[in-house]
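Box 4.2: Ligand-aware structure prediction
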Amino acid sequence: MSNLLFEPYTLGPYTLKNRMVMAPLTRSRAGQPGNIPTALNALYYAQRASAGLIISEATQVSQQAQGYAWTPGIHTLDQVIGWRSVTDAVHRANGLIFMQLWHVGRISHPALQPDGQLPVAPSAIPASGMAFIANERGEGEMVPFVIPRALATDEMPYIVKQYTQGASNALKAGFDGVEIHAANGYLLDQFLNTSSNRRTDEYGGPVENRVRLLMEVVDAVCKTWGAQRVGIRLSPLGTFNDMGDDHPEELFGYIAEQLNRFNLAYLHIVEPEIARDIATKAYDPRGRAIMKLIRDNYRGTLIVCGGFDHAKAMACLAEKRADLVAFGRLFLANPDLPERFRQTAELNRPDESTYYGGGAKGYVDYPTLKQLRGKEPMPLFNEVEKS
Ligand code: 8OZ
C-alpha cells in the first residue's frame, strides 16, 4: 500500500514535503525575563524541520493573553527578534513554521496579568482547576483559578486587536503563517461553549452569537496574512480546562460551514476522542459523528491530531478522513519522526517529567536514528546539560 504520509501536499502557497505536521506543544522554556525565544528554542524547532509543517507552541498575543509561566509571547520587540532566530533556523533546515496565536482568557491568574488584574473571560465563571504561575523565588507553582472578569461588549475590538497585533508581529518574525488557537478551553473556545459563555449581548446566546468573536478574529487575521496562510484549531467535545457545550454537533457543524467563506490554509481538529480522554477517560460516542460532520461540511484542508501512530495516520489519510496528520508527543521525542516512520524504526519514548519548564534535558537531547546508530555525534546540548 502506498503511504500517503510521505507524499507532498499543497497547502496554500506552500508545498509541504510530507503530510506529517508537528503539533503545537507548550514546553514552557521561553527565556526569562520577558518570555523571549532563545537559541535553545531555535535548535529544538530546527531539529524537527523534517516535518511537512511545524506549528509553534501556543504563543500569547499580549500580556493579558498569558496563562502559564514561561510561555513565549509575540507582543514585544525582543520576542519578535527571538522568534526571528527560530524561524531563520527552521528555514535554514528547509522547514516551514506557522505560529499559534493564543489568548487564554480565564485560564490565567492575576500573577501573570498586567498590574495584577483579573483574567478576562466571556462571563464571570471560573474554570475548576489550577493555574501554573512562577512564585517570588522564580519557581513554578500551582494556584487555584480565580473568578475572571466578564468582558464588556465594547472591549471586543480590543480583543480582536490583540490577535491582529500578534499576527502582524508573527509576520515580522518571519513565520510562514499563523494558526488561531480556538481549542482546549482558551478564550475563543470559552466564547463558543455554553458552559463558559452566559452572555446576553451579541456575543452570547445562540450559536451565531457565540461564534461571533471567533469569526471577527479570523476575518481580521486574514486581512493581515491573507487567508491562505491562516489556519485555525478547534477541539470539539473537549473537556480540558472545564469546557462543555449543550449542543456540540450543532456548534461545530455550524463553525465548519461558516469557515468555508474564508478559504483558509486549514482547519486543525483535536480528535474528540482524545480531547475527551484527557479529562474524563470516557469515550463520547458523538466524537466520530462530529468528525464526519466537520469533514462533510468543511471544504478545505483538514488536519487531525491526537494519539496517532504510524498505522493509524496512514489509515486516516487512506480513508480520506483528513488531509494531514499532526503528531505531538511523537515529534517531541523523535526529532526525525518522518525518517523513523520511513524506516519503520524504533521510537524514542517521551519523558513526561520534562514536558514543561527546564532546559536542554528532555528538549533538544532526544537523539535521531543516525545519532543512535553512531553515524552522527550526539547533540552537544546533551553534554552541556549533564555536566
Ligand atoms: C498543556 C499545558 C499548557 C498549555 C493547549 C496550550 O492545551 C495548551 C497547553 C497544553 O492547547
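In the box above, the bound molecule is 2-Phenylacrylic acid. The chain has one domain: 4-334.
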